[in-house]
Amino acid sequence: MALARLVDVHTHVYLPRHCTPSTNFSPLTRASSRTTIYWDRDEKIKFMDRHGIDLSLPTHGSISSPASEAQTLASQLNDDLQQYCADSPSLTPSLKRLYGFGLLPLVPEISTTALLEAIEQISKLSYLKGIIMGTRGIGKGLDDEALDPVWAALEKAGLVVFLHPHYGVDSQAWGDKNNGHVLPLALGFPFETTIATTRLILAGVFDRFPSLRLLLAHSGGALPQLSSRLASCIDHDPVVASRLKHDARWYLGKLYYDAVAYGPEELGFVSDVIARSQRYETGSSVPTNTAVDRTLGSGRMLFGTDHPFFPPLQSTEKWASVVENLQAIDAVTGWGQAEKDGVRGGNALSLFNLV
Amino acid sequence: MALARLVDVHTHVYLPRHCTPSTNFSPLTRASSRTTIYWDRDEKIKFMDRHGIDLSLPTHGSISSPASEAQTLASQLNDDLQQYCADSPSLTPSLKRLYGFGLLPLVPEISTTALLEAIEQISKLSYLKGIIMGTRGIGKGLDDEALDPVWAALEKAGLVVFLHPHYGVDSQAWGDKNNGHVLPLALGFPFETTIATTRLILAGVFDRFPSLRLLLAHSGGALPQLSSRLASCIDHDPVVASRLKHDARWYLGKLYYDAVAYGPEELGFVSDVIARSQRYETGSSVPTNTAVDRTLGSGRMLFGTDHPFFPPLQSTEKWASVVENLQAIDAVTGWGQAEKDGVRGGNALSLFNLV
């Protein structure tokens, strides 16, 4: 049996080239521009060592440069990230400790050719195993048919798409009380992911590209809890009732989810929702009133930290945000050692073909 | 043992006085103005009979009249609803088949006195057992300190507050594809409830009014799935980290949830989230890594239909939306007959003191 590894699939890096005014990069405007935690590889490795993380897959943030600059910037950042990983320590003779998610120049008015060239570039960069994707596409969202060639190329290249929110939803809805960043972070981010994924389902993207591998940030946000409601709303709406090949809940079993939900009940529930997908296989004879086997769902869930965000307010040896997610995995009712080891690292090693 | 009853706590009524241009009532603008399903009591009873529903608690929609008219309109509508219930058939010698949620004139520039008078009126109307509440309060949301006297009066009167969304969230986020009403209904409504409840928690309303009884539409929307993330975000934000008396997850165990979530995994998860609240009791010795007993959570969950919304697209004997919610209750893993009977009706009879 292979050594159990701890692998972080949700961790951010903002390399120096990213952090210039022209990229409109927002996290640094909130944080001290003097901190090195956003790009320094040694800090990332130190964080990993402190929490027992063997291997991490840092992801770029999105870019929002003008189309004329975006292709070059994305290409350079992908090369930067390749180098950042290549220079990382070795975990085994055949594995480094860092791999990464590259980025596409997904900005308004970009050409399809530029997007396809970026996918080709990333496919050839040995340490890049997927791409990060925001929710706006090239300006009209991810359900834009203009992205079909992109999904096709990503599917063909076998690159994992890490869907991560960036803007939040409807800041007016937060009201005028000072609640710090709690509402946009705790609710706005997951809502954004939920909407984007739902729009992908409704647009038939998973029907057209069934082998596309999409990894959802923050355990899919609110999508699991709203998925039966979504299925019912679709069934009751004449505009969409006959559009899709499957019940909405079927698609949730084809997705991947980070395990960044901070609680064991949440993680167990997400694995239930993945596992029940098979009930909605066309022509399935799986009855809808039997208990689901949540061990079947755990294989699509993957540990993450969201580093360097959620630092502790006071100095501590370990970060509470990381400890919470590890404890949550360990405490899921109905998961055995194999499922927990899988979520902690085995599933990531398989998904990203890291052997 | 008492006869097991089926009680619908989530069902709408828009009485004729409500359906005039000055009330800005929106559902009827979507539907045929000729239909009587929105206000006809016989249609409500027929629907109940067809689905085996013994007793229902219809709720008004919100009103958005100018303050000068709102108090009178609310008062008249409350009297109307009292009569609507009083004239309903008897279920037992001491029970009618219809009870209701009244409404407060919650509009901008209304006086506190007018709101308190409405609560006093509703308290005296024997068939009204609570009030409906939207998410905007008197214009600044439910975390507005101006509402403190209202919460105090509602708490004292023992009226259940049914928190129901009305506006959805951020229609721009739905994009420009025609997906019917799916996105605002399946996602926007639950998001609205989630935000409003979170703002109530953050504002300390449940700390100040611990006996307030709040019933959340659509099983709390996305709040259960995002509640551990919410707790973590609060703990990591210096603005709010020390503000509340309890971990955010504690408050979820003090709320009530309709069982309108369309799937057994969702309902089971909501009951887990309610049950785990006790872990976060101040000074609790309940370890956070033991399995929760979800039977403990079921007592705060109550069957509902959302009638007359979600009608079947084709004529059927029973409505799929109702059948789905009944099947979901029946299929929750870990709930026994007592829990299922409770969610179907026993919990509602207790909550509303219908004996």
TrEMBL record, chains A, B:
Lineage start: Eukaryota, Fungi, Dikarya, Basidiomycota, Agaricomycotina
Assigned protein family: Belongs to the metallo-dependent hydrolases superfamily.
A GO molecular-function annotation: hydrolase activity
Keyword Ubl conjugation set for record: no
SUPFAM superfamilies: Metallo-dependent hydrolases
A Gene Ontology biological process term: secondary metabolic process
Name listed for the protein in its UniProt record: 2-amino-3-carboxymuconate-6-semialdehyde decarboxylase
Key words, A-Z: Decarboxylase, Lyase
Pfam family, one: Amidohydro_2
Alphabetized InterPro entries for the sequence: ACMSD (IPR032465), Amidohydro-rel (IPR006680), Metal_Hydrolase (IPR032466)
Record's GO cellular component terms: cytosol
Amidohydrolase-related domain: residues covered: 7-354
Source domain of life: Eukaryota
